[in-house]
Amino acid sequence: MDDEPILETRALCKDFRGFVAVAGVDLRVRRGAIHALIGPNGAGKTTVFNLLTRFVAASSGQIFYRGEEITRRRPAEVARLGLVRSFQVSATFPGLTALENVRVALQRRLGTALHFWRSDRSLRVLHDRARELLASVDLADQADVAAEELPYGRKRALELATTLALDPELLLLDEPTQGMGHEDVGRVVELIRRAAERRTVLMVEHNLPVVADLCDRITVLARGSVLAEGSYAEVSRDPRVLEAYIGVPG
Questions:
Q1: What burial letters (b/e) apply to 223-234, b meaning 16+ CB within 10 Å?
Q2: Are residues 144 and 176 in the same domain?
Q3: Same domain, 178 and 204
């Protein structure tokens, strides 16, 4: 892990017609880290993700990625730079097979994602890489299964494979274990750990045991502001964090 930040925000703010959702957030994500953004419901975590990926425009403040300011870049430009996110809701094509879903993501990198009329023969060059990605998330034996037929946990694994197909340098994961049973959570934790071997990960996650197991550094948000930051051991003992989560002074 490198001390150099791959992602940095300075005094980042978002105001929705008088409601301040994000208030002066300073965030530094070190290259090679698995960094968690946690906090109670309504703390502003997903809004921060939307600001970072430019799905929502900042009211004020700055965002830097690899030392370059991206505060006013378009979402597609940000993704092409290597900052790619997943969403809370699985975002796969239900009628396509797992292999076809990953292949569409690979086509996007080639600039042919909308060329659905291309012959299967012309797309076959992508099959080997698509199968490699499916194998990396333990879906090799589900390549020909329609996404809509996969169990929920396996759909989330497929979404991770399609995200990795874009070859992100910084992977933003929004609630990757939401709604999963214990077995699926354990499997997804290992997939994230594997995915983080060659890239940086910033994740929003409510499952605190997952955060404790995976993350090098944690930023705690409350009411749109940074409440605490440090290792899990440090933030879990912080009286302000205990009060924000359980409503009792620590």
A1: ebbbbbbeebee
A2: no
A3: yes
pTM of the model: 0.86
User: For 139-186, what is the HEC assignment?
Assistant: CHHHCCCEHHHCCHHHHHHHHHHHHHCCCCCEEEEECCCCCCCHHHHH
Domain count, the chain: 2
User: What residues make up the domain containing 57?
Assistant: 1-82+168-250
Same domain membership, residue 61 and residue 183:
yes
Which two structure tokens, joined as six digits, stand for 67?
A: 């030392």
Say yes or no: 191 and 150 in one domain. Answer: no
Task: Render pLDDT for 169-194 as a digit per residue (tens, 0 to 9).
Answer: 999 999 888 888 888 889 889 989 98
Give 162's contacts (C-beta < 8 A, 6+ positions apart). 92, 101, 102, 104, 105, 133
Q: Are residues 240 and 192 in the same domain?
A: yes
pLDDT at 88: 52
Of the listed ranges 85-89, 186-190, 237-241, the one predicted with least confidence: 85-89
pLDDT given for residue 117 in this prediction? 47
3 state SS of 124:
helix
Q: What is the dihedral of CA 196, 202, 205, 208, to 10 degrees?
A: 70
Backbone angles phi, psi at 130, to 5 degrees: -60, -40
Are the C-beta atoms of residues 101 and 70 closer than 8 Å to each other? no
Residue 214: how many CB atoms within 10 A of its CB? 21
Per-residue tokens: 168: 């992100």
Residue 79: phi, psi to the nearest 5? -65, -40
Given 102, 137, 167, the domain boundary residue is: 167
What CATH number does the domain containing 241 carry? Answer: 3.40.50.300
